[in-house]
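The passage that follows is intended for readers who have already worked through the single-chain material. We present the inputs for a multi-component assembly, then the predicted structure in tokenized form, and finally a short commentary. You are encouraged to pause after the input and sketch how you expect the pieces to fit together before reading on.
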Amino acid sequence: MARMKFLCDADRCIECNACVTACKNEHEVPWGMNRRRVVTLNDGKPGERSISMACMHCTDAPCAAVCPVNCFYTTADAVVLHSKDLCIGCGYCFYACPFGAPQYPKVGNFGSRGKMDKCTFCAGGPEADFSQEEFAKYGANRLAEGKLPLCAEMCSTKALLAGDSDVIAQIYKERVSRRGYGSGAWGWQTAYRESIAT
Amino acid sequence: MAKLVAQMRLIAGALALAFMVSLSAPVSAQQPSSVNPTADAVKEQQLLDQLKMIQGRVSIPDEKSGMLVHPAGREWRQFHTVILKWIGGISIIGMLVVLVLFYLWRGPMRVKSGYSGINILRFDGLERFVHWLTAVTFVILGITGLNITFGRITLLPSIGPEAFSAWSEWAKYAHNFLSFGFTLGVLLMFVMWIGRNLPTAADVEWLKQGGGMFDKSNSTHAPAYKFNAGQKILFWIIIGSSAAMIISGFMLLFPFYSGLTVGNMELAEIFHAVVGVLFVALILGHIYLGTIGMEGAFGAMADGNVDLNWAQEHHSLWAKEEIQAQRIKGGVMRPAE
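Having made your guess, compare it with the prediction:
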């Protein structure tokens, strides 16, 4: 099976936020929550960088390790998913996550938070594929349709790559060798304990 | 002289020119095939090494999502999944072992001169209400709190994920909302009992004798006022721990309120958890002494009364005060049978 990962080529990202919008629309993510966002570093200064970031689907995921009710599971494609039926909205995954991926529908309501929501790599949830319940809780299941995550598919500059680790790493390496410089596989060292040698 | 200086300047200028030409020649020879236009861009590892996190700007309303990478979550995970389980396990199970061993060695502390049959009111209705408000909320907070850390490895495998999640969700609500009752209880307790818990000269003597707790012959009874030195220490630890629990707990109860960051909340959780498990261990000792550990003590918090002989043995100075103030139940002093 594949080992699904995201890779944002920061040299190409132009902070158009199309990935953010595509994700929100595709999964009908409720108001106030974003499964993906684009963070700009050194904004307006020399050396500015923009990186599109969502759940990185970590190897040995910290969220799964700290969840008090063990609601996370990893699919055969190495996508980290969770069950909203089991989630109690304690917020611990948010404390453990290095990427700020977990989102909660309620922020200030005495910490009740509601069921956690995060990027599913467009792979739905534990419910039956394409069921109404799955869509309502987790959004579209593009992976089951044989498609890749919409954020990367929509990316206007093809900065955001989603897919099998070996394939996207190869695409990135070819780019780097052609243009002569890398841009760093942002988050990879933290998420996967490895980077892409370029 | 001026001519010499001008000549030297000429030679120095010529040397400098030659040096620059010699430097630039190999550079132009090794011109890279492409130029890196973002060579001076920020680098991930550099930022992580310098700042331990990467913070930027986002254009969505959720400003806190500008935190791009925050690897400290990994350390928090290590604390929560490994270190905390050891601290909690050792302190709570350790305390239970100590109490069992102490009970086997010392047994319940008996009233040496037997019951007199005369009652003294030790805690009035308000005191008992405040104690039990604090106690009941503490026990529920303690159990639901321990569930978050230890439930997954103890309860979850035996009752299954659905039942465990249902219980844990209610446990979380109970933990969140009963915290207000606990806070009120601790505040009232502090105001109500602080006057009785200031150190006195009698406390030094009590501590020297270990309160008679370690005298198996049961003949050591250090004089004490309403609260002995051990109880005063307990009082101050409870007040201090409760303040720590309440402050760190409210930080977790109101996530991101007034500029709280994820780093602050991780620290608050660590603090809350460590003080919490130690607090539970301490209160186990308190429960032991208030129930099976000491004969005649539980009545003080049940109907409020203790036996006069118990009072004279354990709180002799307080018993004297009560007798002098004619506050003995029934008002009649009968000799012990």
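Commentary: Strands of chain A lie at 4-8, 37-41, 49-53, 72-74, 80-82, 160-164. Chain A touches chain B through 59 residues (CB under 8 Å). How closely did your sketch match?
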